[in-house]
Amino acid sequence: MKLILFGPPGAGKGTQADKIKSHYDIPHLSTGNIFRYNIKNETELGKKVKSILDAGKLVPDETVVDLVVDEIQKPEYKNGYILDGFPRTIPQAEALDEYLASKETSIDLFLNLEVPEQELIDRILSRAEGRSDDTPEKIKTRLSVYHNETAPVLNHYEKKGKVQKIDGVGSIDDIFGRIKDALDEL
Ligand code: AMP
């Protein structure tokens, strides 16, 4: 099963991806986690993207697409994956679709986690993960990047009939229950 877990910053993508991963045994591929790991370990990639993540802006499409395409070719992803934080722009979505089409496959489902804006801000400010981009000013930048560059990706997959909307308000288990209902229908 190839899933895209989509939604604004603070929607709970990481939390729900972990639950999907344990329940369905599908690997979780978070581009944000990969970048943070590389920054922590001071790799070449980490040095290249650190100031971008710190500012709450987007890493260039080519860098992200190369990274994801390399990653999903690894054997652990051969039966599927949960993409979290990717694709985040229309060019990224097009590159992903093209790559999958070249392998005669496609995304099975695009889950859109819907959460009101004020709740997103409250959640990010209270999650205290120590992320350098979780300050009020950076959250503002990330939400505006989301609205301008990322939200159109939803429309792109809506046109393909892949989108399932998930109410992202409630307890972690309530929200996971809604996701399970959507996945069990596949
Ligand atoms: P996330 O953990 O998904 O919130 O991502 C954290 C940060 O990593 C983002 O604010 C971007 O700077 C960068 N990032 C993660 N995924 C992408 C992507 N698909 N395209 C561009 N930048 C990304």
Q: Could you explain the architecture of this structure?
A:
The chain is of the alpha/beta class. It has one domain (2-178): P-loop containing nucleotide triphosphate hydrolases (Rossmann fold, 3-Layer(aba) Sandwich), CATH 3.40.50. Helix content is 57%, strand content 12%. It has helices at residues 13-24, 31-40, 44-55, 61-72, 90-102, 117-127, 136-150, 152-159, 172-184, and strands at 2-6, 28-30, 81-84, 109-114, 163-167. Strands 2-3-1-4-5 form a five-stranded parallel beta sheet, sandwiched between helices. Helix 2 crosses helix 3 (44-55) and helix 4 (61-72) packs parallel to helix 5 (90-102). It is globular and about 40 Å long.
Low-confidence stretches: none
- Total number of helical segments? 9
Instruction: Tell me, rounded to a whole number, the average pLDDT.
Output: 97
Tally of structural domains: 1
The CATH topology label is: Rossmann fold
Largest sheet: 5 strands, parallel
Spatially, the strands of the biggest sheet line up as 2-3-1-4-5
Number of strands: 5
Proportion in β-strands: 5-15%
Which properties best describe this structure?
five-stranded parallel sheet; alpha/beta; 5 strands; single chain; Rossmann fold; 12% strand; binds adenosine monophosphate; 186 residues
Task: Give the gist of this structure.
57% of the residues lie in helices and 12% in strands.
Helix and strand layout, with pairings?
Layout: E1 2-6, H1 13-24, E2 28-30, H2 31-40, H3 44-55, H4 61-72, E3 81-84, H5 90-102, E4 109-114, H6 117-127, H7 136-150, H8 152-159, E5 163-167, H9 172-184
Parallel strand pairs: 1-3, 1-4, 2-3, 4-5
Helix pairs in contact: 1-9, 2-3, 4-5
Bound molecules: adenosine monophosphate.
